[in-house]
Write a structure and sequence with these properties.
Order of helices and strands of chain A: HHEEHEEEHHHEHEEHEEHHEE
Number of domains of chain B: 2
Order of helices and strands of chain B: EHEHEHEHEHEEEEHHHEE
CATH topology of the largest domain in chain A: Beta-Lactamase
Largest sheet of chain A: 5 strands, antiparallel
Strand content of chain A: 15-25%
Largest interface: A-B, 34 and 36 residues
Structural class of chain B: alpha/beta
Shape of chain B: globular
Helix content of chain B: 40-55%
Helix content of chain A: 40-55%
Number of domains of chain A: 3
Shape of chain A: rod-shaped
Radius of gyration of chain B: 17 Å
CATH architecture of the largest domain in chain A: 2-Layer Sandwich
CATH superfamily of the largest domain in chain B: Response regulator
Oligomer: heterodimer
Radius of gyration of chain A: 51 Å
Number of strands of chain A: 12
Amino acid sequence: MSRLGLRARITAVFALGALALSASLASATYQLTRQSLLEERERAAVRAAYLDAAFIRTGLGGEDPDISAALQNLDTGELRRPLVRRDGQFFARTADDGLTSSIPDALQRLVDGGTPAVQRVPLRDSSAIVVGVPLPAVEASYYEVSPLTELERTFAVLATVLGLVALVTTVAGASTGWLISRRVLRPLAQVADAAGTIASGDFTARVARDNDPDLDKLAVSFNRMVDEVSARSEADRRFAADVSHELRSPLQTLSAATSVLDRRRNELDDRTAAAVDLLTDEVARFETLVTDLLELAKSDRPAERRPTDVVALTRALLTSRGLPPEVLDLSGGSTALDVDPRRFEQVLANLVDNAAKHGGGAVRVGLEVEDDRLVLEVDDEGAGVPADERELVFDRFARGRAASMRGGSDGTGLGLALVAQHVLAHRGSVAVLDRPGGGARFRVELPGESP
Amino acid sequence: MPRLLIVEDDDRIRLSLRLALEDEGYVVRDVSTAEEGLAEHKSAPADLVLVDLMLPGMDGFDCIRSLRRLGDVPIVVVSARDDTHDVVAALEAGADDYVVKPVAVKELSARLRALRRRASGSGEDAPKVLRFGEIELRPEAGEVLLGDEQVHLTRTEFRLLCELADQSGRVLSRQQLLDRVWGYDVYGDERLVDVHMGRLRRKVERDPANPTHLVTVRGLGYKLAP
């Protein structure tokens, strides 16, 4: 489960805080308002009921009083509804529409016992206040039912308004959180941007200083770190360039000078000629060694892929190594794929040279595209590579046991390591297999350009 | 015998290259600074120039630019630097070829021979005048006209144009062009082709950014469209 981002969490906290605050305020406001309105309404209902009860008592005062007339003469306004109970019977102005049943028994008992009482009761779709006033003088009791429909509607409106206010407050809280978090996280975003730029190799990126002392510390320490990394990287680069220059320059002199000697080999006596041969061979090997080492030192560079005619390149290389054109096996068809031509050429050259040195020469060079991967196979008919050495042959300065037993000392021991590195730069793979029919098969797979 | 000028500040490299290239049949003069090299070339023009990039005083890039202003002598950079940046900068400055030290004398000699070779389009059976829109190519006279104006091309640029004209309308891969123009028999630096093509376009195309004759065929190479 992925956790929410810092910004989302800050926003959520602000929103929840605003919601809790506004909801409790709204709820308290609603309760208090409701309470006081209800109490006021109750007092008004009680006052009105007493007045009406007095009027009824007067109306029932004489002999054989007309209860209906007394009720009809009562001025109760539109809402209050009077009831008179006498001799266990209710009298109302109109036909009973559930009014009498709404008067709770407990209230009736209280009133019958001579105690005035008031109670809030539920009505069909709202509620009402029932006030009961005993009229002992006329052996009756007076009830008045005041429906709270109006008040309930007011409460509903109030609740809606308060709910909306709470909602708006919550949204405002969330927005505030979002904005504040952006402000707070801006320095982090700048640091992230700068780090990305630096990772892509541009050491000039820096984070702008901030007025806030807390944030400024971040910017300053980040920039100091970049300065140091940049200085170290620059020093490394310069050292590598210096090493490269210091190694290449004397080799150029050696190479040119030995070629002068070699040209006059026939004019030399046998001993001197043998020495010149040694010199020429070793200078050539040393050249390859240095070039390979310097190439390996550039291991961090990505492959520079471009559309490459790998078939033409392979043909040219095989020709240069004196191999017959039949060696090239293109049975797989298409070979159109972007690769780094310089690296591909070195992979091929090193595998072919490796086959020549340790396997009696390449007998087949296969080239095809399989599932968007360029597959290169170099087969030889040598002794093959023992299973326990198959991983090791790609290590630096590793040379096959078979080769050392043969006393072979040519090669730099870096050729296959370079192959592995170039393949890695393409995010591909290389492996040694058994060639059907004997010998070794080096199989290289280079995936096409990643999306 | 072709006259070769070596501009190289390392005494030992300079001497060894001089000895080895004299063996290859060149008349070699060698100097240790770009300033001396320019003076030497002005007083007695060389047929080929080898230039190192890291030189005291004026650097190799400026040396190449100054030589280029004097004429179209083929220039080969022999440098210990193998950064793409340096290679491209040297070629943009006007170098014809670029080799990284240590280079075998045989290899260097082959490079130099290729640069001295005549354009293959200028053989005896070649037509006198070839036209590609506004571009008029006269292989034998070694002239190129854009409309009525004569265009000045270096020897390498001219050969590149001739090779494309020779196979007019057909695509030549960078590898083929390297082989034909620079004489690379094995894989060579394709940046050579791209940089020279850019320079050639700036000289013979009306709108070098949107070439109409020297066209890139993605994944394959270049062709000269009529």
